[in-house]
Amino acid sequence: MSDPAERVAPRRLLGLAVPALGVLAAEPLYVLVDTAVVGHLGAVPLAGLSLGGTLFTLVSTQLTFLSYGTTARTARLHGAGQRAAAVAEGVQATWLGLGVGAVLLVLAQLLAVPVAELLAGPGPVADAAASWLRVALCGAPMVLVTLAGNGWMRGVQDTVRPLRYVLAGNGVSAVLCPVLVYPVGWGLEGSAVANLVGQSIAASLFIRALIVERVPLRPVPAQMRAQLGLGRDLVLRTLAFQACFLSATSVAARTGAETAAAHQVVWQLWTFLSLVLDSLAIAAQSLVGAALGAGSAPRAKSIARQITWYGLGFGILLGTLFAALAGVLPPLFTADAAVLAVVPAAWWFFVGLQPVAGVVFALDGVFLGAGDAAYLRTATILSAVIGYLPMIWLSLAFGWGLMGIWTGLSLFMVLRLVTLLLRARSGKWARVGAVRAGS
């Protein structure tokens, strides 16, 4: 049993997790608004937005190390009582975001058309996607500054200001989007401009927060290289996720329209609940990193156990809730009887995996907070190669449909659960110090 003195008050945990959930949910909610506005322009602009938005999300997702990696490094320094050094990590992550974002901006202008045509084939949809992407990726530096800002603020256990900043940017975008698309008459490009304005507002607020901290603002290449070392492992881990999820979508689409539609319904719910559970992981990153930075491995391990139990309880609660809603929710997404008939093949996997996901995401947060990214990278890639990917492609070969696809996801999650529990039990992740050894 853990020492009660080492536990975190539930109110403190929720104080970190709830605002973090708001930040995580803000972007998907804005995308829904954007989609609703552009949808009235017609099928081609909507398809262009879908393709362009998918590419934009793919790029930004691959660079989330600016958020998660920065949290890990900053939390340790914060726990050691070195706030200025913690904020300095945010400064370097911001410079890194500006530099990488500038490269992406240039690449977007050069490659938007060929990439869009590769995915959609030459034609009006590819043209629309490329046009949107060229404007939207002008905001790439701002998006990455926002990721870095979220990272260092989470590390110093401030999740409220990031929520305010992100809501301010997305709120302005949501108001501007219909105005620029319709009365101003910019159409699909108006949506991209609104996106760019919102990203610039949020990024400027994060930059202002760094300035008022009164820490040195000059770039330090050595520090940025150290951040990139941690980032490499997180990027490879994210690539494993992307390979699995894109393969699942591809196989579902090749199986048939009803299978693809049913998979989309359940997958969107899975993605949404992943955000809910990930808010607990963000709290874990901050608290575990601070405990290790303060030199207390027992406290870090106690927090890890506590958050793991919370994750399990939360997952059981969500699984029970969505089991009860099995006959209610799917018809809200589609009225097609053929699609609704296929949904149960995935639904009960989705429900049954919630407790597993609760523990897995909680331990992800623990190990990210500890800077144990190399282990997470290896465990995720092995789980994908052994469990998920073979099952997905066998499903296509043998016609197993959604049952095969979601069995693959189940194997992936169970393998991740086993690898993470073994790591947690070993205690090797709990290395104390203001900076993790080797980073």
TrEMBL record:
Keyword DNA repair on entry: no
Keywords recorded for this protein, A-Z: Cell membrane, Membrane, Transmembrane, Transmembrane helix, Transport
InterPro entries linked to this entry: DinF-like, MATE_fam, MdtK-like
Subcellular location: Cell membrane
Signal peptide bounds: none
Segments passing through the bilayer: 49-69, 90-112, 132-153, 165-186, 269-295, 307-333, 345-367, 374-394, 400-422
Pfam family, one: MatE
Topology versus the membrane: Multi-pass membrane protein
Stored CDD domains: MATE_DinF_like
Keyword S-adenosyl-L-methionine: no
GO CC annotation: plasma membrane
Superkingdom of source: Bacteria
MF annotations from Gene Ontology: antiporter activity; xenobiotic transmembrane transporter activity
Family as reported in the entry's similarity comment: Belongs to the multi antimicrobial extrusion (MATE) (TC 2.A.66.1) family.
Protein name: MATE family efflux transporter
Organism of derivation: Saccharopolyspora montiporae
Organism lineage: Bacteria, Bacillati, Actinomycetota, Actinomycetes, Pseudonocardiales
